[in-house]
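During the first year of the project, the team set up a workflow for recording each protein of interest as an amino acid sequence followed immediately by a discrete structure-token representation. This format lets reviewers and collaborators read both layers of information side by side without switching files. As required by the reporting guidelines, we include two representative entries from the current panel. The first entry is reproduced here exactly as it appears in our internal archive.
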Amino acid sequence: MRVKWGALVALATALALPVPPAAAQAPVVLKVAIVQQIDSLNPFLAVFQSSTEINRLMYDSLTAYSARDQAVTEGLANRWEPSADKLTWTFTVPAGKRWSDGQPITAHDVAFTYNLMLADEAARTANGGFVANFDTVTAPDPATVVVKTKAPQVTMLALDIPIVPAHVWERVGSVKDHANDRMPVVGSGPFVLTEHVPGQFLKLRANKTYWRGAPAYDELHFVYFQNSDAAVRALGKGEVDLVNRMTPAQFDSLAGKAGVTRNRAQGRRFTELLVNPGARTRTGEPFGDGNPALREVAVRRAIAQAIDLDALVARVSLGYADRGAGLVPPVFAQWHWQPSPEQRRAFDPAAANAALDAAGHPRGADGTRFGLRLLGRAGRAYDEQAAEHLKRWMADIGVRLDVRLVSDGQLSEETTAATYDLAFSGWAANVDPDFVLGLHTCAQRPGADGRGGATDAHFCDETYDRLYAEQLSEFDEGRRQDLVRQLQARFHDQVPAVVLAYDDALEAYRSDRFARFPTQPAQGGVIMGQHGVWGYYGAEPAERVAPAPRGWGGLAAFGAAGSSMLMAIVVYLRRQRATAGERE
């Protein structure tokens, strides 16, 4: 064989020539639209769904729920073992996991977080129910956390508490006053918060040393919009990549739109109407200014009976929801409660009128019995539309309704202060029902200063508390399911709130920019609002690297592959040179 020596030398020489450096690759950014304000970046204080979601991206918990089927999986701990009497739980925090500043994550961080909650009332604001039954928490060595409880606690693998770095938080003087906004915020999750402009945006960068592995893109931005209309328009223009909490009309409008993929899932949220039952602190002092008539359960039941839940699902949710009943949405079928025919509260204005007459609230000369104030979120289509229906239905039973739509922050402040009669609200239930049930215990009411509790409806009921304590210690799942359903039935009967609907999750994303988002659960699940980080963490860019340009830039982009080819040619040339004489 005759070797084309000159051609090979020329090619090798060309590849060896110096080339201009390639242009820096622009970061891949996932932009997410949010319409709910951030109440706090402090994980001990944050209760808004938007804030909770961001805190989960920054801080891991002790255990997690898998994306595939929501089964308990590794968090900061990779092993756990209860004692025979279920009063002592031992967790193993393996070596090798690190905070975003490079410091090791140890059992000391876990013990510090839980003990801070036990010692500081403000630190129990968001998730205090999880530790209310804790006796002691210790870290005998860097890999071991030991939690002793006062009574058996079935939720020990469902502690949705962000673990904070002790070496940072030990220097925090006051938890209730700490904004947690010193950038970059040290965390353990897949993203690190680097910038926050309230009411405008939050920016996070990928944590390249995350123990599960770095995300497949560089930055995650949450962009704030005043309402979902503006957010959906931005998605259509390609200004954001992911949107949720759309109205049914907005969701339908995106059908068939180029570059956009929709996702409809059975959500884990419910929408409710709070009915102020008369707020009191944990020590029994009354506060707030709710209408005294609402302290009567007969009046609260009459109001609930005058609300047509089926009409709200059909006319406001346009069928993208299920009729409300208990506190746990039907997506968690094993815990969901549906009333029996005897318990079901049918829409019956005539019966509601009769009940108000019997309760001693006659109509006046103008046909009105009393007036109530209704609070809702400005810019939220559901609140705006449902309020109009409620005004008509309440008028039918002689109740004058004054509607006021306010910001997220103001709504939170007024419901916390109990300066309302009726108010639209809602919560997302966890995989384990304990958290959403625990919001309604007497212990979740605020302290004397109005702080420290996470009550949803200012409800306190001896029967409810007894059932709650029983389910918390019940390890037989069938028996616990029965107790959880009894709890929901009691809540429904006492009416501190009316669960209006279980909303479908209506989401859409720019599939021309991001090819895939993991859902939770894998079949029919949600992208945003997960019980975890998978939707954001596992997002896959549609095109991570742009096509290489022609010419010298293309050779520069060739990089390692070009170097490898050059070396192969050099080796080949050397071998051919050594054997060329024999073959001639």
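The second entry, processed by the same pipeline in the following quarter, appears below.
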Amino acid sequence: MSAQDERAALTDRPSLYAYALSLIEAGPREGPASGAVTRRQGFPLPDEPPLPDGPRLRGKKGFAAVRAALGPLLAGPDTPGAAEEIHRRLAELPVHTGPVAGAVLSMPLDDPAAARALARRLVCTGTQSRPVSVGLALLGRLGEPEDIPVLRALTHLDGLLGLALEALEPLDPRTAALRWLDLRVRETDLRPFVDALLSGGTRDARALLIGLPPDLRAVGPSPSRRIAEATGLAGLLRREPLDPRLVARAARLLVRMASPRDYEAEVRSYREAVEVCELVVRRAPTLSPGVDHAAVLLSLAVDLHSGPTRLLPWRDGQVDQLLDALGALLHSPGWEGAFAGPDADASPAVRRRAEWLRYTRDRVFQDPPPDSRLRIEVLSRDPDDGDPLETRFLLDGEPLVPAVFGRGAGNWPEYFFGDERLRATEEPREVQLAEAWCSEGCCGALWVTIVREGDEVVWRDWRHPERLPGGEPAPVLPAHRFDTVAYDAEVARAGTETRWSWPARTIARLIREGLRASPELLGRWDCRLTYAESPTDTPDTAEVGFLYQPGTFEGTDVKGGSWIHFVWRLPDESTPPAEQAAAALRRLAAEDPRAYATCVGGAR
């Protein structure tokens, strides 16, 4: 059956591909219900028949139903009428588009060529979103350059654009990146840049990149990768003469791609990341020595040292060569001024950044102890970016959290060292090493059980999502065994290192230690501590969170009873942190904190 015959057999409705082409040709128009439909927003899908009556199949049940219905059709040889049969079977399943595509992405395919041919008929002739999503999911695995035109068209239909972009990206990354930026970047400082690219600015992408704001802290990992792809960043860095401003922008984009403030570290999805890293490091000597350039190069070194960038497909020894080159540059006499202490009248932010520069340079370029199977590092990128301070674990030199989890950073250092969570005893203890940047309930966490067995400490019984953010299976971790003496020494060293802290964070830590030593300071007010910290986005303030629940002091509080959550915010007054923490504890002892803290939630 030809594609035309099969389309006629399916329905008299036009295919979604033909529908998309007609709307693209007509341009933006007024929709009867949705108002102005712009290219940036995408076009709505035409009305479709409702799902069959009955409960919707979701999660594993939905996957199983789709596999059972479509598996034989997708795994076997190409047959006439297969696309029509897929339409018919999907019409009988109470499953939405997401589970349909998700199930197809993981199905075994015995005959890839036959599956590719079927996928092309589905995307070209399919009249409903679920059959077309099957074709898109297959082309995401099997697509070839000849599929680019239809995939480009389908990126303009809401409901299909995500799958179409995923299938288009490996075939035409620049077009996919431009389309993604057009869809996702709204009225921000980046919008003029995106509009210029869409208007043909890729011919002058170098000037557009250089014209980006130097401060890219608000640009997340996903747009950073798409900016690099849409502008052909690697090719720009190869050209001569090279503008040092382009080197600085490229380094910033690499650092933003590796930020944990997203569902995954986008640097691992950037196909030219290795080449761009190598070009940036090679061109780094062209940058003028200064604090901003030192900060971005050191942030890149942090990720080459123990972040997701270290996990790129490097040649043997290549990443260490890049770190050696950065270390030599940042320790050279010409750059020492960037690491000097701040002026006496410098702002807290300037002092905090100066201390970060010195501490991070010392840690990142320090030779690891010989035969150290486990290393624990407390590191962050440039504090001006607002990324979290994280605890990083290196097993045999490789970063653990991004390798097996990848959905968020390692937990904050006080979580591990304040309660001695990493201390190994003969009683097994399960410890959360990292949590997804959204929440554990949403995207999971990384857990391990720590136990002492004779002269060894064992990390075993790992718990984490079965798949990495990109969809590939997560590594299956065996039990890791460490020499007890070496393990205890490394945990003690990491726990006593505090140079990563800043005054407000030290104030919060001392208050937390004081309240844990004397819980009655809050208990007398029927309150108990929930947290004490100084977030990276408000680093000049210590926050103390506590819960008020009647009966706490007497032990008569009822689980699930009435409660109110308060936060007490203490601005850093630039006096010694120990003095500020002691004053705060004295006030908690003398005055009811509910009178001066802020209510942030509670039972109605």
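For the second entry, the following points were noted during internal review. The mean pLDDT is 89. The radius of gyration is 28 Å. Both points are flagged for discussion at the upcoming steering committee meeting.
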